[in-house]
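Predict both folds.
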Amino acid sequence: MIERLLYKLKNWRAIWRAFYLGSAVKFNDLTMRGELSAKVIRKNGRQINLGVIGRRVVTTAGVNFLRDDFNAAAGGADITNFKFHDSGTGVVAEAVGDVDLGTPAGPTTRATGTQSGGVSKQYVTVGTISYTGTLAITEHGIFNQAARGAGSTLWDRTVFAAINVVNLDSIQFTYTLTINDGG
């Protein structure tokens, strides 16, 4: 509890930016909002729940992928594949034009998230990334495939204040996409 409060106080600028700049992509009356939470799991088993660390940015590539899934004739797009979590050390702010993380770091294969949609109007994927070195993790993305590189589509990218990890630490990321109907 104290660690979470200290993290929030230390990184108030990044948290304020995420909330102030907005957290939603709006299509007429339909709104999609991405939210990222994190829990640090230290190598000794101690857990630090950081709560919500960012809100934003569903990418243009992600939205186009969704469009293509609706239009089955457009190819093999399958929205249910957006369950792969990746992290990095890039610090450039999120943008709708992002197609990858700024600086991917950690394991070379993305973590496969557990998916759920039990809450009305929400899609949730939870993935845990384990680290084998000392890093300052500052970004997270949701992708449609486990392998980095060609053929991979970035659904959502979030930049946040550094979460420092050492060998054998891990971070459990929870990505929640809320889709509100309208009309």
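Second protein follows, with its predicted structure tokens after the sequence.
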Amino acid sequence: MAIYCLDNQGYQYLAHTGMEPSGRFRASELVQREFAFLRHHLQAIDLLVLAERLAQRYREVSLARMRTERQLRQDPILLGSGTSRVRVVPDGWVDLRLGGLQHCVAFELDRGTERKNKIQSKVKHLLECSGAPYQLAFGTTSLTVAWVVAQGGDGRVEELVRWSEEVLRSAGTTHDADLFRFAAFDPAEIEPGRAFFGAFWRRPFDLSPVPLIGEDNGGA
């Protein structure tokens, strides 16, 4: 796989046309990033592309807003204060409208590399920010955290579900289990209808698979 990124000359050209990416740019930093990081980044983008393809394919669906991981990192949700402040940054976020209802999805892309303590810390922070901090940052109460396992299959899904259940029990917030969805698929290969409407997503404390949004449309 070839992965291309901007060099200084390319950035200057985009800046001249007013199309340069927002935020800080350092060509040397892009070159130094490891392949695993770039692979993760590209698959996170594939999830946003899925949402865009869904809106293109289904007339009843519209994509109202979208934020990439890069944009979210520039304006993260902040928890705590001072030196203990935590930045909560999903791997992508979309605001979908279906049948007059708003469905906001924050994506977490998992490639099977993060250990239990790191995953549980993420779950804890996502729970903490899902109320007022999230509403202030995004201007809505609608939120589903979609954890997509791109490497590791159903076994990794079961692992993530179990770890999230432990956090929810420990925090006394089992009533918030519906905030989370877990599924295993390749974001670049799956059909958008199946990804969002297919009833194969897992929730904590629930053995019955459910769709990410709306009803199961059979994975068209």
